[in-house]
Specification:
Oligomer: single chain
Helix content: over 70%
Structural class: mainly alpha
Shape: elongated
Order of helices and strands: HHHHHHHHH
Largest sheet: none
Strand content: under 5%
Number of helices: 9
Number of strands: 0
Length: 204
């Protein structure tokens, strides 16, 4: 009886092993064709002809890793409910990026007096950025990264508001305080989280 059960188990194991080996072999062929095609498309025929039998084939051998990675990344896709939040946050960052460019001193100068037209543009971009950022939901920020909400509101956006208030009132102290808070956002949070947050928001 034991011998019979053992024989059945060995038969099932052998069959399962053959099935897995077959799936793996088919995967190597299919992924090998795919990786060779993408390598030639991205790097050109000449480079593919030189390394095409090395790089894509090596990736094909470990195709289960790429399959598992693709599935896990799909699980991190942006929920449809956050599409507007991502658009607003992107618009806000774009506006603040424009402000940074407009307020940057010319090369070789530690500071400069902004022309009135440029100062007006800075005000417009700050107002636009804050308007978009204020519409971004806390749920979206929590989804991106749990501590982002705190740093974004208490440092980055607070700093932008202070800078705008200082600009409107001619208060240099408020402007400097705003810049200090924005710098803390970059050094204490964004420098270490930018890559992960951007990847989650837009994909790898």
């Amino acid at each position: 009886m034991v011998s019979s059960e053992s024989t059945k188990f060995k038969g099932v194991s052998a069959g399962l092993g053959s099935l897995l080996l077959g799936v793996y072999s088919v995967g190597i062929v299919a992924s090998g064709l795919y990786f060779n095609w993408t390598y030639a498309r991205d790097h050109g025929f000449v480079k593919w002809a030189t390394l095409g039998l090395v790089v894509p084939t090596a990736k094909a051998v470990v195709w289960p890793y790429f399959a598992i990675s693709a599935v896990s990344q799909r699980g991190n896709a942006l929920p449809s409910e956050f599409a507007k939040d991502r658009e607003r946050l992107t618009s806000a960052f774009a506006a603040f990026g424009t402000v940074s460019d407009l307020t940057e001193a010319p090369s070789g100068q530690p500071s400069f007096q902004m022309p009135k037209e440029r100062e007006d543009s800075v005000r417009q971009m700050l107002t636009l950025g804050l308007a978009n950022a204020d519409l971004v939901s806390d749920r979206f920020l929590d989804w991106l990264e749990p501590s982002m909400k705190h740093y974004l509101h208490d440092f980055f956006l607070r700093g932008q508001r202070l800078y705008l208030k200082g600009l409107n009132s001619g208060d240099g102290v408020k402007q400097l305080e705003g810049v200090r808070l924005i710098s803390r956002w970059h050094s204490e949070y964004w420098a270490t989280h930018q890559k992960a947050v951007t990847s989650k928001a837009f994909g790898p």
